[in-house]
Fold each of these.
Amino acid sequence: MSELDEAWAFALAEAETRARMAGHVDLAAYLSLRSANDLLRSTGIQWLMNTCESVAAGAIAAACALSMFGLLWFYLPWRRRRQMRHKSQVNA
């Protein structure tokens, strides 16, 4: 949690306490709900970012594997053909 988030949470808690002491139950309930929503929002954002990073990492890994497979697919048959030509030249 950043310093700004901590200051905001502290200010909301203080405002909620003052509202309860002054008898403004509706305002205190609103501030309590707002702080709970802020917590849920930050947790949801963190979860979403972690999920996106995980999906992106998987896609990058798959793309690298596909790229390597494409390279091997191109390179290996050519290499085999070259070795076969070399063997036929040696045997001739």
Note: The mean pLDDT is 79.
Amino acid sequence: MGFDGLLRARANVVSGILNGIDTSIWNPAADDRLEHIARLDTTRTGELGYVAKAIEKVVAHFGDSRGIIGFCGAPFTLASYMVEGASSRSFIETMRFSLSSAFTNLRLS
């Protein structure tokens, strides 16, 4: 069934955006405030090859059995979601972790 099928099957109890954005609420194509996006510097996109490799690993592992939901955020944001398990206003657990020996011994591979 997949995520799309699940949402459609439960359309009477869920609400939100299916397969894209709700342009009746906000249409980025018509938003003049977004002109600066066209001027973004993309000369360093080659440095993001690790992102494609990570996605390839996820797809290879799950195949067509799962959908992929993306999340973008700065390193502290990602760390806080991983440590706190949800959004946080105080980041107490994230700060506690960042001061622990587990954090100082953490190695990224």
Note: The CA atoms of residues 10 and 46 lie 41 Å apart.
Amino acid sequence: MSDRPLTVAAIETRGVVVPMARPLATGAGAVTTVPLMLVDLRTGEGVTGRSYIFAFYAALLGALTELTRASARAFRARRLCRSRSKPGCGRRSACPACRAWR
């Protein structure tokens, strides 16, 4: 693996409601579906990272999507450090070794 920083090209989101294989019993009732927002972070170097955000209610997916898209505009074209071997890497700030965002 190269230690060269990656550049954020795009952040894509989509909301989905996933049925649970086994309902979760809670004091408020049974939870039969899970609202998730799927997030893909694409880099200019061809690497794609994937994650998800759990929403307690499906009605929150629209707000989460808008919040993530607004945040994505701040990260577009930003370099990301992917090295954990350099001194100072591994924290959530600019990497002191390569000046890329961590």
Note: Residues 6-80 form a domain with the Enolase-like; domain 1 fold (CATH 3.30.390.10).
Amino acid sequence: MSARAATTTTRATGDLQNYNAGLGGVFAPPVTVNNGLFYTSNVPYIFLYDALIASCNAQSVACSASSNVNFLDTGKCLTTVSVLPLL
């Protein structure tokens, strides 16, 4: 019996990334705020939108890298990023 990769995750308090689905078992890195800047993967962004897009892109790249190493179909790593405008 093989272990299945998780398909959803629970976000930590303070994580602004609300995309909880795993792409090929890979989850989007958290987005946090500190001193007025938004961070994901230790990179600062001025706008939340940019940090969320970077987080989703990092998830897609990590999924593709994992799929390539394991000779799996990278099609499961593609997703449509939808971020609602912040008004």
Note: The chain has one helix and three strands.
